[in-house]
Amino acid sequence: MGLLLFGILAAIVATTLLGMTAGADDFVEWLLSVVLGLCIGAGSLAIGIIPAFVASTTPANPIEVEIYAIKDNSEVQGQFSLGYGSVDEEQYYYYVTESNDGFKKIAKAEVDNSALKEESIDNPYVVVYENKFDSAFMRFMYGDYNGSNTYEFHVPNNTITTDYNVDLE
Question: Which parts pass through the membrane (predicted)?
Answer without folding.
Answer: 33-54
